[in-house]
Amino acid sequence: MQRYGFELLVVCIGKYGDIPKMPVFPPNKGQEVYGGKVMHTLDYSKLDKEAARELLKGKKVAVVGYKKSAIDLATECAQANQGADGQPCTMVIRTLHWTVPAYWIWGLPFFLFYSTRSSQFLHQRPNQGLLRNLLFPLLSPVRKAVSKFIESYLVWKLPLVKYGLKPDHPFEEDYASCQMAILPENFFSEADNGKIMFKKTPRWWFWNGGLEFEDNTKLEADVVLLATGFEGKKKIQDLLPQPFSSLIVDSSGIMPLYRGTIHPLIPNMAFVGYIESVSNLQTAELRCKWLSRLADGLFKLPSIKKMLDQTSEEIEIMKKTTRFYKRHCISTFSINHSDEICEEMGWKCWRKNNWVLEAFAPYSSQDYGEED
């Protein structure tokens, strides 16, 4: 065994992939009693186009989930089952989420609602000061109106009511947890043609011929595809030895990361690409620039207490904004997150050429170019 010493360890294994999140079933109701094929999206993604088509064609397929991977899988299944011999694909849905056909809402670009400095002014953010704390409750009707405005378009544009797919929670909660999925163009047309069907259920399990549901109905299935997500935290915990692995997740079930990168209790270890935003590449790139300057000694981390206070405040904001807060998404205060990173690097926060663009234009990677 060889040991190596480092002043800083950077973990760049991402949040998704490697360890699938598998459903847990009552005794004798798991996949061991099922006579068909069960596959997680982790394994499905490794198939080439021909193998995937062969798996789906002419088969009764159940897709468990209703996020982006599940929606794409159901569409692929429908396309593989065109013609008289084609079988419908059934999406088994426990939790509904809002889906978007395109980045336009009632003729307005989507970024105007959540991705500009003016739109994010409506939302709570860390270190916002006394005045903003007083204004925040007063702005609640505006936030709700924005969410309702978007929901009205989606209900008009998409057959959500027809198929019982209209979520009970506000659109804002899905956006704040980075769960807004863009629909494939032909998704609902395949549903109209009977190639995609939907089954909502809080619980399900296996029987020999397929899936059984809490309402005592059964679904015959030759193939069950699990779009049930990944164990991002477990992947990191399995990677690290004790005592580090036991420190990864706090009491809220979230991994606290200062500036989305440094765990306050493990300050010599950085995690890149873990916290989500609407534009993961942009935020990850900026954090990498911040991290490189930290490694070069251009600035120092604050105390452990100050880092924990910062991460705790961010987590509390997520809890207040969405019931899906454990996804650890900063989408409603992403610009403020970038501002604080810039401040710590000694960069100016406002990156646009004029105040109109600063207020109403979205930020991109080009706005965070190197400063002289």
UniProtKB/TrEMBL annotation:
InterPro entries: FAD/NAD-bd_sf (IPR036188), Flavin_mOase-like (IPR020946), FMO-like (IPR050346)
Protein name: Flavin-containing monooxygenase
Essential cofactor(s): FAD
SUPFAM superfamilies per UniProt: FAD/NAD(P)-binding domain
A UniProt-annotated Pfam family: FMO-like
Keywords attached to this entry: FAD, Flavoprotein, Monooxygenase, Oxidoreductase
Family: Belongs to the FMO family.
Highest taxon above the source species: Eukaryota
Keyword Hydrolase assigned: no
Residue stretches in coiled coil: none
EC numbers: 1.-.-.-
UniProt organism field: Gossypium raimondii (Peruvian cotton)
TM regions (residue ranges): none
GO MF annotations in UniProt: flavin adenine dinucleotide binding; N,N-dimethylaniline monooxygenase activity; NADP binding
